[in-house]
Amino acid sequence: MGRSPCCEKAHTNKGAWTKEEDERLIAYIRTHGEGCWRSLPKAAGLLRCGKSCRLRWINYLRPDLKRGNFTEEEDELIIKLHSLLGNKWSLIAGRLPGRTDNEIKNYWNTHIRRKLLSRGIDPTTHRPINEPSTTQKVTTISFAGGDHKTKDIEDQDYKMINVKAESGLSQVEDEINSSPFREQFPDLNLELRISPPSRQNYQQSHHVQDFKQSPTSMQQPIGQRQILKWSSDPRRISP
DNA sequence: AATCCCCGCAACCGCACAAAT
DNA sequence: GATTTGTGCGGTTGCGGGGAT
């Protein structure tokens, strides 16, 4: 089955957004709320594809975005979450209010990877570089003290945790909340429910509550939708 | 001052999935 | 059940700014 293109490419702008385009998008979303990205450009008078509008809003224009430099605490939280979840940037972003998946992904690739390498840690496996491949270790960093802890974990256990990280977040939580993992990393807050409270705040403060379009995905803030459960694809959450 | 090079970040692309038809 | 539509995600690209030469 074929997919129709998300927009009429011949009549859409590409590349950097202008100030005017930003203003149009902000004004439209303030009035109508987020959602129905496909029809939004036309309704807002923008010569942009819906995906482009969505991305621009989520990654740049949303008023609840923190922006600015990442703090040391954010750095370390990203490292922790990445060690458990891998490149699930949207999930990681869910634990960092005001940060977007794109921002975290970029930050990871430009800063954190280098940081881990300088610590002698493989950014993909989170294990010490040059470690014999037969010995399975999980390296985590004690962020309170700034020192490194290395824990030997049975190969099987390690794989199991990784598999669960791939298969479902609630299962990961179960795994983590159960000892001995919990005992090993008592400071690790992994209540991995995604809830961007800032978005709710935005809706309250901007009175963008009446979603005029009505696909189900638009009637709930993203965070609330994502709490519900995982589908077979870890990226997909269905009610 | 001009050019080159590198890096960071915004934006794009293709794909997967759920919901709707 | 098959197909279409809308959305979200991760990977990648390419532009622009700033430092080095």
From TrEMBL:
It is found in: Nucleus. The keyword Membrane does not apply. Residues 197-223 have a biased composition (Polar residues). One of its GO terms (molecular function) is cis-regulatory region sequence-specific DNA binding. SUPFAM superfamilies: Homeodomain-like. Residues 9-61, 62-116 form the HTH myb-type domain. Residues 9-61, 62-112 form the Myb-like domain. GO terms for biological process: green leaf volatile biosynthetic process; regulation of DNA-templated transcription. Gene3D superfamilies: Homeodomain-like (1.10.10.60). Keywords: DNA-binding, Nucleus, Repeat. Residues 195-239 are annotated as: Disordered. One of its GO terms (cellular component) is nucleus. It comes from the Eukaryota. InterPro entries: Homeodomain-like_sf (IPR009057), Myb_dom (IPR017930), Myb_TF_plants (IPR015495), SANT/Myb (IPR001005). Coiled coil: none annotated. This is Myb-related protein Zm38. It comes from Capsicum annuum. The lineage of its organism: Eukaryota, Viridiplantae, Streptophyta, Embryophyta, Tracheophyta.
